């Protein structure tokens, strides 16, 4: 495939032109919550985000909707969230009951949980007695209502439009949007060859690296955009396009690919950092194994959703570059659990009410253990945030406020920011010494030359 589509693959992976960057981010700005910002070349690191208005300290700088993202597979055990916007759904009772039910089956978000459980780990969560099966079922079916949970209304659970069990939503609008954007290609509801192939792909991703699922969503996103563009344009222009369909199809594919094209890319096996437990002498073998892992994943995905008109998307170079884009550009997807807010609310009640409430919920608190409020966690790509460069003395940070209950990236000013100033984040813990910071940034493929690093750099 690499040879047959070499020109098209090169075009897909070519850096976008300055004009296309300007036009694309202008359209993103017009469609989203990024007033006061602009994206342009900073003359040093390529794309950068600049303030086009002043921001006060702690003011919201950006609320960025993800282009594509996914909840970590292991996290789905702990958190029931909307598969499109990642808001918690159901009820406090549903969230607690579901976790305890899965825990009773020996499942938890920690991949080592089963091993610890089977070896009689001293982990507090494993040692404590779970509530009875009947009590857990009463939480799940709504027969048992915990005190004060009416203060924490969550959206009702909406099922996948085609009925698969993997995806749940907070509203019909989210279900429809996910179907149109990604899920209609990745749904496993039908007992057909495609669904069985998808299940094999998902199983492989869950066993190896669930970043493959995010990459699959990026490809599905592009294919569905391509089909929609083609349908609209061919309908508008009719038979005049038929004699040149190969070239026209690829122009549609390039246009559909544009949002993904904006992310900085390297092949995954070239940019992934070398794990600490891998000796440098074994680096070539490690990177070859990573490449082979991506190749296996791609073949499984091709069995499920291959589209000959979008064939260049299924080259290993493109697939590896998409994964590398997430490796280099992702901002962790994090949404706080409402269970934490609920237990804090109980803890802050007047003594008498608190005592009565604790009598009803203490069994569940003990069973959940110290990690009672695991947040939704995943990987996502955000179009504006991904353009923000690093600084060890940043002027902004990613920070979820109490009102931020879905998967948007939230960027807050750390200090006053003036018009024309570049918006920067710290990709690492900036409180460590210079040498440690530079070592951590080596995983991102660069050394920092921000004002602080220039000042602290040994002479």
TrEMBL record:
Residues 35-428 form the SET domain. The keyword Ubl conjugation does not apply. One of its GO terms (molecular function) is methyltransferase activity. PROSITE patterns: SET. Keywords: Metal-binding, Zinc, Zinc-finger. The keyword Metal-binding applies. InterPro entries: ATXR2-like, SET_dom, SET_dom_sf, Znf_MYND. It comes from Rhynchospora tenuis. It comes from the Eukaryota. It holds the Pfam family SET. This is SET domain-containing protein.
